[in-house]
Write a structure and sequence with these properties.
two-stranded antiparallel sheet; Small Protein B, Chain: A; alpha+beta; 152 residues; seven-stranded antiparallel β-sheet
Length: 152
């Protein structure tokens, strides 16, 4: 199945330890889908909350207004309902009760049948020293790769 990536939250991998990944559908309007196809979305400050009715809602995700939409222009930042099974939502509620866990959007993409999906991550915040250690590890891996390329 072909997957077309729309946008990715790279900062999330730096800020959080991702424990688990979940795929969910999104309730979107027509102009929002057209805007996503153009790659006009930003996940930087996005997060997911489960409301009192048991619905997963995505907050602070910016999907730009489609410029050629003739009527019903949408707000770029609004709550968007996520499509998950009841048992998945119940599992998430149990896990989100734990201290320090958050549900954040990692990427938005289109699957083969043209449906827009969002990949959610069950995330635990990193400490400052964890971030520094990760950067050092990444830099040393790059240096090893460079040395391997020179020697080959």
């Amino acid at each position: 199945m072909a997957v077309k990536l729309v946008c990715q939250n790279r900062k999330a991998y730096h800020e959080y330890h991702i424990d688990q990944k979940i795929e969910a559908g999104m309730v979107l309007s027509g102009p929002e889908v057209k805007s996503l196809r153009g790659g006009k979305a930003n996940l930087k400050d996005g997060y997911v909350k489960i409301n009192e009715r048991g619905e997963a809602m995505m907050h602070n995700v910016h999907i730009s207004a489609y410029t050629f939409a003739t009527h019903n222009p949408n707000e770029p930042i609004r709550e968007r309902k996520l499509l998950l099974h009841k048992r998945e939502i119940k599992k998430l509620i149990g896990k989100l009760q734990e201290k320090g866990l958050a549900l954040i959007p990692l990427k938005i993409y289109f699957v083969g049948n043209g449906k827009a999906k969002v990949e959610l991550g069950l995330a635990r915040g990193k400490r400052q020293y964890d971030k520094r250690a990760a950067l050092k590890q990444k830099q040393s891996d790059r240096e090893v790769q460079r040395a391997m390329r020179r020697n080959v």
